[in-house]
Amino acid sequence: MNTADGGLAPAVRSILATAAERPGGDERLAVDARSLPDAFADAEADGRIPVIAEVKPTSPTTDGERTDDPVELAEEMVAGGAGALSVLTEPEHFGGSAETLERVRDAVDVPVLRKDFLLREEQLDAVAADLVLLIVRFVGDDLTNLVSAARERGFQPLVEVHDADELSAAIDAGADLIGVNNRDLGALEVDLSTFERVAPEVPDDATLIAESGITTTADARRMREAGADGLLIGSAIMDAEGRGESGDGVEGDGAGGDVRANTRRFTRAGTEGKP
């Protein structure tokens, strides 16, 4: 594992320190997962950009906190066209929980990603989800074993990379769902060109997701034009004030309606597919 990586931002090191102490589940899970590629195909067929909308109450890189019922927010995201959801289960820094994921997954019919910092196999057993996030930089040489362990339980592993070396590790581990994080975990800075550099090296048969830094519809179109099959969007959807862009023609109505409107802006941002 790379949990002692001195190149990480202090906030990330703190997240990993608490993740290392977090226990796993009491028994091995077996999950009947909803297919993310199928959900993306359904969105495309419906003329929507495939978006994974993230239920994220707070984070070290955003200001404030949303206290709305996460189930209500999730339902509004789906009503706004989200093809899948991501739910934070990291409690100390993101305000997430396994219970929140369970409630959300019970309430919707789209795939739900467990967004957390998983370091050991037993941590996969904390809660059932359709997908689990495995971050190459954090799991290091354990990646292949964790990918296999996730699949044995029925999970779809989404393997996150940031550069060409991490992508090679993901491919070697057999990853077929690959996320490229535009956020540098060293400086916590976002650069959308990260995706543009890494995407051309991703195998054509993999499902490719652009993560972090997508704050406008222009960003969404840019990532799609660079090859993204889907987009993972958190803060720009959870932002209670919205990210008002002239010409979107969608307004929120409070009580979660802003989240529906924010989601709809991105799912309607255009239907450009992979070149």
**Second rung of CATH, namely the architecture:** Alpha-Beta Barrel
Principal-axis shape:
globular
What CATH calls the topology is TIM Barrel
How many domains make up the 3D coordinates? 1
**Approximately what portion of the residues adopt beta-strand conformation?**
5-15%
Kindly state the mean pLDDT as a whole number?
A: 89
Distance between the termini: 36 Å
Strand segment count: 8
Pick out the low-confidence regions.
246-255
Q: Largest sheet, order of strands side by side? A: 1-2-3-4-5-6-7-8
**DSSP summary: helix tally:** 12
The CATH superfamily bears the name: Aldolase class I
- The proportion of residues forming helix, as a percent range, comes to 25-40%
| Order of secondary-structure elements | HHEHEHHEEHHEHEHEHEHH
What is the makeup of the main sheet? Answer: 8 strands, parallel, barrel
Radius of gyration, in Å, reads 17 Å
Q: Which class do the helix and strand fractions yield?
A: alpha/beta
CATH class: Alpha Beta
State the oligomer: single chain
Task: Kindly describe this structure.
With 275 residues, the chain is of the alpha/beta class. It has a single domain (31-267), classed as Aldolase class I (TIM Barrel, Alpha-Beta Barrel). Helices cover 36% and strands 14% of the residues. The protein is built from 12 helices and 8 strands. It has an 8-stranded parallel β-barrel with strand order 1-2-3-4-5-6-7-8, surrounded by 7 helices. β7 (207-211), α10 and β8 (230-233) form a beta-alpha-beta unit. α3 crosses α5 (98-107) and α3 packs parallel to α12. The chain is globular.
